[in-house]
Specification:
With 865 residues, this protein is α+β, with helices and mostly antiparallel strands. It has 33 helices and 23 strands. It folds into 4 domains: 229 residues, Cytochrome Bc1 Complex, Chain A, domain 1; 165 residues, Metalloenzyme, LuxS/M16 peptidase-like (Cytochrome Bc1 Complex, Chain A, domain 1, 2-Layer Sandwich), CATH 3.30.830; 222 residues, Cytochrome Bc1 Complex, Chain A, domain 1; 176 residues, Metalloenzyme, LuxS/M16 peptidase-like (Cytochrome Bc1 Complex, Chain A, domain 1). Helices cover 43% and strands 20% of the residues. The protein has a 7-stranded mixed sheet with strand order 1-2-3-7-4-6-5, sandwiched between helices.
Length: 865
């Protein structure tokens, strides 16, 4: 009934001075016919047996719409099975001298039972019944929701919660590991039983489980018991998941925030070798040495001495299935020490000998790891808890052979691996400081200064000075992007942006790249066309140039940026190479229902406006743009009167202004053509446009005009868009399963705005999807708005604003955007205040006034002709 896989003889105890003549019991691994992996480890030191079953279910396998369901389900799994009620399930183990519990991590859920060996059959019967036959009673959901939400609140109350969340969002951005294990209150409070059961039936399959059994048993007998209690459940196909790609980029990137925390927290993450890499074992010991307490060079550097920089410091190696990271964390009660600690880390790693243990310390480190493993194995269920994350990631065989492989590592191995991974030192991290308890608004603002000035040549300059970051960030807004583009040359702005950063009259392409690299500069002039939906900053309204370095290189950085803005040469080679790239992007875009639908929507809503133009142009227009066209447009578009230049620095306002005047103040003004944008139409009925495409999916855009950003209704419209988006996601995606991509929003220009609801769905679902979108708009106008969803929408907008303004370069970007929109560089702070004032009545009022289910624009792409 089972297939024997492998016998792993534990060689953990090769050292006779530690283990004497006692040979450890073998570890044997089996796979049942249904795919369940069983790892059996005999340990006859006490008459107890623990069975820990690991399910490959966690935040790693969730979505943004069910985040937290794994942990919630873990709670619900104790509420009864087909044959046992909640009391029987929880109290039987205790009645027979046992212990039952569970825990959830990012990529696993573990269910453990610890029983006296004579009662292990009872324990295995309970555990298998719980795993395969839980019924998730509807009547238990309200209670469990409250329990989990209270657990969230307890976690939130932890002084380190906000700092940990900020670090998680920074380090794991763009990966499933950014999701909190507990999820979010709005999801846990609303996720229906059907979605929970769907998740349960998907992941709680024997072929998605591994059991680790340790204790006083005979292997053959225990294997028979597992066949009896677990072998009858049939396997099911499992979802496929892409490998998580997580790599810390080159350079040192720190994000800072002032949050509700008691101390200042510094956390950095570095790349580490994958566990299959031979370098892993040497790196593992380097990490252990860095985190070894009194022996650690980190502790000696930061926590010792008369005036230590930190109260505590630690290092740990995170080993996941797809990646590894080294984390270094420090806590200090003096915010001013944060940069000293970062500099100290840089200095410590600058000489790799500082992080290499002596021969004596290396030997002691390995001995300590071996003995701790012995101590831990005596605590049967605790051993499973501690080893769970690594075992699920690497497999038990790797874990069993870890210590022997560490014993083979030499100091020369450590030096080689340290040089490979720490030279040059790269990391991503965070600095979180406690919120200041300022006595007055003036005192609060004293750390941050602003200045706005229009230079004699017409260049608008906004400067923000704040000491919280070493980053020197500049953003340039080129105003009236589509409106400035000559007739028939749609996309020329994007073309200019891509070529002007290639070479100047001062530097050729290689030299310019080298100069930028020498100051660690980041330069961004377009969104990434290879990343789906990465077009957040792309708009018909304006173009952007984002530039960042660190303050010590600010002068050279401004010189290089000025050179690109003023002296780009547009070589024929660069022009043609860029043209080929753009033609490729546009070719892919022409096959995208989403892109084509957006263009069709803009053409319908803005028929007499520059906003009807495709932002990147078309293959026809890009093919017809010459080098002379690019040069002429470049001189006009990036003339001082058409730019807003915003700077964020930790230097003084005067110093930044002096640099701006030095490098941009003598630019000659250029007379710009009269700008006419054109407002959206007011539909008098349903205005429909379709782009026929031979696709499996159809994209749908439904929307219409609204007032501009300075309208008193703008905050309520923004909240209305957020609520509509959440409702559409829940009803049309999560409940009805009609869509992968769905959402809604309200956007604004100076004098007008627009709302849009968007959805991609199968062609067969088109009518249902369209009717569903309109129904959700109707409900928003006429139905009740729950206070919790209103709060969630406002908090979501607030959180998104905070997140987008974490980096200095984005702060500079939004200062420039707000100036362009005519609301002033400090608009974001007031905007959040206005959002919080929005009531349910306000939302319904603007939904009735501006949204419509009878007079609207609908664009589709993918429907047959």
């Amino acid at each position: 009934m089972y297939r024997f896989l492998i016998v792993v003889v534990s060689i953990l105890a090769l050292s006779t001075n530690l283990y004497g003549d006692l040979a450890p019991s073998p570890t044997e691994t089996f796979t049942l016919d249904n795919g369940m992996t069983i790892i059996l480890k005999e340990n006859h030191s006490s008459p107890m047996i623990t069975s820990i079953v690991f399910v490959n279910a966690g935040a790693r396998y969730e979505t943004d719409y069910n985040n937290g369901v794994t942990h919630f389900l873990e709670h619900l799994m104790f509420d009864g099975t087909k044959s046992r009620n909640r009391e029987e399930l929880n109290e039987t183990a205790e009645m027979y001298g046992g212990y039952i519990n569970a825990f959830t991590r990012e990529d696993l859920t573990a269910y453990m039972i610890l029983m006296p060996k004579e009662n292990i059959d009872i324990g295995l019967d309970i555990q298998s019944d719980q795993l395969f036959n839980s019924i998730i009673p509807e009547e238990e959901l309200p209670k469990e929701r409250k329990i989990v939400i209270e657990e969230m609140k307890m976690s939130i109350d932890n002084p380190d919660y906000q700092a940990e969340a900020f670090t998680r969002n920074t380090v794991y951005h763009g990966t499933p590991y950014v999701r909190p294990v507990l999820g979010y209150e709005n999801i846990i409070s609303t996720i229906p039983r059907e979605r929970i059961m769907e998740y349960y039936k998907t992941y709680y399959m024997p072929n998605n489980m591994t059991a680790l059994v340790i204790g006083d048993f005979e292997t053959a007998d225990m294997l028979a018991k597992f066949e009896k209690y677990y072998g009858m459940q049939t396997a099911q196909p499992l979802p496929e998941f892409d490998k998580v790609e997580l790599s810390i980029p080159a350079g040192k990137k720190i994000k800072r925030a002032e949050l509700e925390t008691t101390d200042t927290k510094i956390d950095i993450a570095m790349n580490a070798p994958h566990f299959t890499d031979p370098d892993y074992f040497a790196y593992y010991l380097l990490a252990e040495y860095l985190g070894s307490g009194d022996m650690s060079p980190l502790d000696k550097t930061f926590t010792e001495g008369e005036n230590p920089f930190a109260q505590s410091v630690s290092a740990s190696l995170q080993t996941q299935r797809d990646f590894s990271l080294l984390h270094i964390s420090a806590t200090t009660d003096m915010p001013e020490n944060a940069d000293k600690i970062l500099s100290g880390i840089d200095d410590l790693f600058a000489n790799i000998d500082n992080v290499i243990p002596s021969e004596k310390d290396l030997h002691g480190l390995v001995v300590s790891l071996k003995t701790n493993d012995i101590y831990l194995r005596e605590k049967l269920h605790y051993y499973g808890i501690i080893v769970a994350p690594m075992m699920v990631s690497t497999g038990y065989e790797f874990l069993e052979n870890l210590i022997p492989n560490l014993e083979k590592v030499t100091r020369s191995d450590l030096k080689r691996v340290a040089a490979k991974y720490f030279t040059p030192l790269s990391y991503t991290g965070t600095v979180v400081t406690p919120k200041s308890e300022a006595k007055t608004e003036t005192a609060t603002a004293s750390n941050t200064e602003y200045k706005k000035e229009v230079l004699p040549n017409g260049l608008t300059v906004v400067i923000k000075s704040n000491p919280d970051s070493r980053v020197f960030a500049v953003n340039i807004i080129g105003k009236n992007r589509s409106a400035m583009e000559p007739e028939g040359k749609d996309g020329i702005t994007d073309f200019v942006n891509r070529v002007m950063t290639e070479a100047t009259s001062t530097y050729d392409s290689d030299q310019l790249a080298s100069e930028l690299a020498s100051i660690g500069a980041n330069l961004t002039v377009t969104d990434n066309p290879y990343i789906p939906y990465d077009d957040f900053y792309t708009t018909n309204q304006y173009a952007f140039v984002k530039f960042e370095t660190i303050d010590e290189f600010s002068d050279k950085g401004m010189a290089l940026l000025s050179d690109m803005i003023r002296n780009a040469v547009f070589t024929e080679e660069d022009v043609e190479q860029t043209r080929r790239q753009m033609m490729g992007f546009l070719g892919r875009s022409s096959g995208s229902p989403r892109e084509q639908c957006r263009n069709a929507f803009n053409e319908s809503l803005f028929p007499n406006s520059a906003y009807s133009k495709p932002i990147m142009g078309s293959q026809r227009t890009i093919a017809g743009i010459t080098r002379d066209d690019l040069l002429a447009y470049y001189k006009t578009f990036y003339s001082p009167g058409n730019m807003i230049l915003s700077v964020c620095t930790n230097g003084s306002i005067d110093d930044a202004m002096a640099k701006l005047v030095k490098y941009f103040g003598d630019m000659e003004p250029v007379e710009s053509p009269a700008i006419i944008v054109g407002e959206p139409i007011q539909p008098s009925s349903v205005l429909a446009k379709n782009v026929p495409m031979d696709k499996e999916q159809v994209y749908i855009y439904i929307g219409g005009p609204t007032p501009g950003i300075q309208s008193e209704d703008a905050p309520a419209l923004k909240v209305a868009g957020a609520i509509l988006s959440d409702r559409m996601s829940l009803e049309l995606r999560e409940k009805q399963g009609l869509a992968y991509s769905v959402g809604a929003s309200a956007s604004f220009d100076k004098d007008f705005g627009w709302y849009v609801a968007v959805m991609g769905t199968g062609i067969d679902n088109y009518e249902t999807a369209k009717d569903g979108m309109l129904a959700e708009i109707k409900k928003l106008q006429e139905g009740a708005i729950d206070p919790d969803e209103l709060t969630k929408a406002k908090n979501s907008l607030w959180g998104s604003s905070l997140t987008r303004n974490l980096s200095r370069v984005n702060q500079a970007y939004y200062m420039g955007v707000n100036e362009y929109l005519g609301v002033g560089y400090a608009f974001s702070d007031n905007w959040i205040v206005d959002l919080r004032k929005v009531t349910a009545d306000d939302v319904q009022r603007v939904a009735k006034k501006y949204f419509s289910t009878e007079k609207y624009v609908i664009a589709t792409a993918g429907l047959p002709e």
